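Hi R.,

Here's the chain you asked about this morning:
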Amino acid sequence: MVQGGRRARRAGLVGALWATAELTVTVGVVVLLLVVHQVWWTNRQAAAAAQDRVQALERSWGRDPAPDPVGPPDALGPSDLPEPAATVAGPVPVPVPVPGSAGTAGPGRSARPAAGPPTRDRAYAVLRIPRLGLVVPVAQGIDKRAVLDKGYVGQYPGTAGPGERGNFALAGHRNTHGEPFRYINRLRAGDELVVDMRGRRYTYVVGKILSETTERDTGVIAPVPRSLVKPDQGYGEPGAYITLTTCTPEYSSKYRLVVWGTLKSS
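And the predicted structure, written out as tokens:
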């Protein structure tokens, strides 16, 4: 009887251990599939959709993008760029937007007529970074679902438009969902950042890089960009700037990486 009871308990223990092992393996496979979906599949989907959008924009412009004679920043008319949305819904993996609204003059910005309500998630331009081989659509707003998770680069609400005086500030994912800004840490002073719109091309030149700052450092996307966390980083005079922001280090949203550039004179 005693030996039979021991065998029964042993069998029960083995069964429990086996069931636990099966459950652990199953959970591990599910987690692995989720990671593959998030890191690999969403990248493929978003990157492919973003490239389709670039091609659609180019077709709608009726030509392949090419340099055009570009007037001074103030020459932009209301039909060239829809106004940024006033608010952003949902969390974003980038610094919070600066206060203010487009279409109003501010430090380092030129006033221009309002263009009417924008379509927040509609791409209106194409960003090209030759050093990285990057070609990505630019859309209004930095909402994750509506813009960033599509593999697009998003323009911060209230920041200047391409070619304008002020700061044309952009955000993009570093990892997953197309990860357009994954390698912007490789940019160096003198690299070109090209922004194509219908009938216009604006070329910026990378000037400064802030390798790490906090997510609340709104100074980096101000009209005259200067870090509030590291005041020695940034610019001190009005001009026509571009700012690229993304998360750092990779696969983390703890800090922000910032690249600044200035509009190249035509």
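The chain has one helix and eight strands.

Let me know if you need anything else.
M.
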